[in-house]
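Weekly modeling sync, notes
Attendees: AB, CL, MP (scribe)

Item 1: holo prediction request
CL wants a bound-state model with magnesium ion before deciding which constructs to order. AB pointed out that an apo prediction alone won't tell us much about the pocket. Agreed to run with the ligand included and paste results into these notes for async review.

Input as submitted:
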Amino acid sequence: MSVVEATAVKPAQKNRNERKLTIAKALNEAIAQEMRRDKNVFLMGEDIGILGAVWGYTGGLLAEFGEERVRDTPISETAFIGAAVGAANLGMRPIVELMFVDFYGVCMDAIYNLAAKSSYHSAGTFKAPMVLTTAVGGGYCDSTQHSQCLYATFAHLPGMKVVMPSNAYDAKGMMTSAIRDDNPVVFMMHKNLQGMGFLGTIQGAIVDVPEDSYTVPLGKANVVRDGTDVTIVGLGMTVHQGLEAAKTLEKEGVSAEVVDLRSLAPLDRDTVCRSVQKTGRLIVVDDDYLSYGVTAEIIATVTERDIKSLKCPPKRIAFPDIPIPFARPMEQHCLPNVRKIVAAARAMM
Amino acid sequence: MQPTPKQRLWMYEMMVKNRYNEARLSATYMEGKSPLFNMANGPLPGEMHLSDGQEPCAVGLGAHLTKDDYFACHHRSHAQALAKGVDLKRMTAEILGRKAGLSEGRAGHIHIFDYEVLFWSSGIIGQNMGPAVGAALARKMRGEAGIAIACIGEGGANQGGFHEAMNLAAVWKLPFICVIEDNQWAVSVPKSKSTAIASNADRAAAYGMPGERVISNDPDDIFAAVGRAVARARAGEGPSLLELQTVRLQGHFMGDPEVYRPKAEIAAKPEMDPIPRYRRKLIAAGVMTEIEADAIVARAHAEVDEAFAFARAAAEPAPEDAFDKVFV
Ligand SMILES: Cc1ncc(C[n+]2csc(CCOP(=O)(O)OP(=O)(O)O)c2C)c(N)n1
Ligand SMILES: [Mg+2]
């Protein structure tokens, strides 16, 4: 079963031809449609204007919407992300780009103390409807400060949604939802899925995308492959690794179910637990650092809710607790991959 | 303050060496990346920011520095590293991800670290300022010789870390110099769109330190301006701000087609190249002859070739080496 076949909530689309898009193109379409629909939606960030963003999803927006609504910023993250909070408080709906998740360190206060707490400490009066976009992930030798994922860092901090699509269909629908959401949404894009000319793209991320606007709800996981023997949970890149592993396992008579989390906050614990109740075995795959992360949260959820649903100890596969090394042999050794997932599943049978 | 003939020859040689090093890095980078360009492939994967055109800033600085001076650089640091005396063989090995590299292959080209000559770099824009100020503080508190320098792009000068560090250096009167390399571009964003004033040297007044802007991209002019700032820092008179107008002859990183850059500016690149200009200048001034210039070029190239031979023959790290050095 391909990713798109399994994707829930497809809008009714009659007489349309299949159209495969990259995540970058799908995001572009979602943003353009929302900008046409709501004049309060605007974009700001580094290199989003004439360049069309380093991660390729804002091309053409400057030409269509002009410099007023598509604003290249100085390299002043604390200022422009803080500014997004204030603008959002007064009715604008900024989409703010910051290239690599690694760079958010310089402006974290604007995110976790300003945007994320805006609703709570104003009793819901100062809303912060903003989308923060950023690229995550390594595997192409970009070293310590350009390869991180930091999912858990963001998902740990209450008051903001944290999501990442694994394919172009979800990307468009989730971006539309994110823009319409009245809360701050951290929207992550995995570099290995994005569809860039300068980097390889996992082909499974490039799927059919309807022209019309539609939403994919934030906070709903997606069972992208049904199975009965083991549940493989991932998000973004690791979903595709899970799907590949499932193909290999199938040849060995092991039926793997693959769950795409899609959203870390809110986290769809029900879908994960339901799957494990069915399969009895759990592998969680994460390209973020191992400790205190997504893998621990998923496993804690399952064991806390229904430890008896597990036939054997769960397994986590994640990046070890070390900075991401540059040289290929070291980085590849540390990243999750299909081989590691298959081995973990075999060991459980 | 004018450079001596010997210093001028040194500056010429370092510029030539950097340019050839960039050319060899660039060729190595493209190996395994065609017909399909993919950053992940080839013997030199990842990002690559070249410094062609910005050599005068590096050599005008390097000519004044000793190995006791702490130099915190950014993502485009090859020229500065060479001018600071970073071990070229081990730097090349690092950029190629070899165990013999400066960081044993853990860091790559954005992170050149050589403790022997106190060279340091980071890829997070603006954040190299704080460490340089802190290094200057350590020198002052310990009563040691040595100053600290931070190099930052004109784009980086709009990062919050820049302003905080400038004030801190000034209020504590530290032996610190901030050098803004103004190549007029921050990836695709021109300075005019990111900075409300034309000269960042004007900002110095707000921090309470001297500021100077050099527009020629000429090593001698830069040498003179840096000399004044270095003398001030070494005399304990406090920090200075320099903005050096320069030129980025390549794209922001390799693979950047520069769609945003005006065609006329791209066409004018050869004329903006500071190296042939400096060569003509030194020959005209009688500092070197054509033959001597060629000998300098040959020597520089040989040194770079030797570094590449060393790096390419060096072993890759073992996968498990990833786990070392997380803590000391
Ligand atoms: C905090 C942070 N924000 C953004 C980036 C992405 N980035 C890398 S280089 C660059 C442009 C830097 O321009 P400038 O400081 O002028 O240096 P140049 O590249 O021109 O040498 C940007 C935006 C980053 N590395 N760190
Ligand atoms: Mg610049």
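Recorded for review: The domain at 10-314 of chain B is CATH 3.40.50.970 (Rossmann fold).
Action items: CL to compare against the apo run; MP to circulate these notes.
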